[in-house]
Amino acid sequence: MPLNFDKLMGDGTGCLGAMMRTARAYLAESSPSVLLQRVGDRIEEMPGGDCPDKRWFQRSYGREVTDAPDDLLVGDSLFYLTEQRRLFLDCTGGHYQMTWGYEHPELTELLLDGIERGIVWDNHSNIPSAPVKRLTEKLVELANPGRDLADLQADPDSLNTVLSGTATGSVACAAAIKMMLMNHQGPGDPVFVVLDGNYHGTDMLAQRLRGMWPEIFCNLAVVAVQPNDVEELEATFREHGENVAGFWAEPIMMNREAIPIEPDYLHLARGLCDNTGALMAIDEIQTGFWFPEVIYCARIGLEPDFLVLGKGMTAGFHPLSALVYKGRLDCLEQYDAISTNGNAALAAYMALGCIELIERHADGIEAAGAAWHDAMAEIADEFADTLVEPRGIAHMSGLKFRERDECLDFHRRALERGLWLRAHAYHEGHSAILTKFALPLDRQVVDFAADALRDLLRGD
Ligand SMILES: Cc1ncc(COP(=O)(O)O)c(C=O)c1O
Questions:
Q1: Ligand 1 centre from 289 Cα, in Å?
Q2: What CATH number belongs to 115-360?
Q3: pTM for this structure?
């Protein structure tokens, strides 16, 4: 007997499968204008049905038993339907990793093409297949725009090496931290200079960079500086000098109210690292694959020592991350920092497709990103009593509220309105909402979303 959806879902009635098919057809067959008009509605003409709940989940992932679970049912481009048949506009690209939204037709076709050609899903990293090898070359090319590949190969001081056997961003960040430690030459305990409010994954050492586990890691120091504070950064490097092992930054702090880091600040940090022998890591888990240049560092002409890539790289097909770094720093052995053995050939093929789409649509991506950020800036001006300023850059733009409670209330009402966006208002002083639209964002959606935010700010 073939494997069967209803049986696998534990659904004797076949309702869930039927509901998903109808929902998927509804999304695929409705035009964006029709869907936009109905964002926030319950689509009553679709059949309802029982869906599994989260009773076996861990508490922090919503282990509440509920009679009517309302999680994601199906998605298409920027839209998704919930299990209770509510239509949402996803303003966050899945949760920052669905570069091309849900079920992009060309990527779906590419996936089927890859399977048909015999690209394996995964295999031992000692015998990587063509897409993995091609992806490493493509990433080196993107990290070094305009440079000749043969020159790069011969230059150990260039970003010419890729650790590709990592599944998640956390593993790639951890690999960079380990290499910083192993390359550290300073006389004293290593010091990491990080931005206050950073997030570089869930590895324990990365968590130490954001303040956790001080009692466990006591032979290294972490100095958190305020983002964009030039004087504090200079004073920190002056104080710790050659003991600084590494500097870490995200170009847009998507885990702290979408604070954009000034390119000049990052270039200054580059210079300070060069003067003291510290290594610079730029975490592009969020910004990578969301700009026309693919890699944000290429956009601002910055050459870090480590470039962390992940999330959007495969457009959400499979967790796959990569660490691009300078060949001279290559000091880890095979099992020191990988997701033991795999390197996800099919996911690498999807990554190549995702990159190709970005390159093909570069102008449209630039225009839509600028239009969205401009809209946020206009809204911040129009509602200056409630809002402090726009935050973020391009598709990753947000709004900083004056009052935390107003931000939380706005977020609750946005969800009721069918706009799935994020709020950072759970820490002292935080009061921002964030978006990270998937790249199919266009003028029609920009105008719709901006007007919907205006209505919410007016209290409509
Ligand atoms: C900036 C940044 N670094 C690292 C990570 C960790 O990536 P992953 O969740 O794939 O382990 C994340 C995840 O959101 C992130 O936003």
A1: 14
A2: 3.40.640.10
A3: 0.97
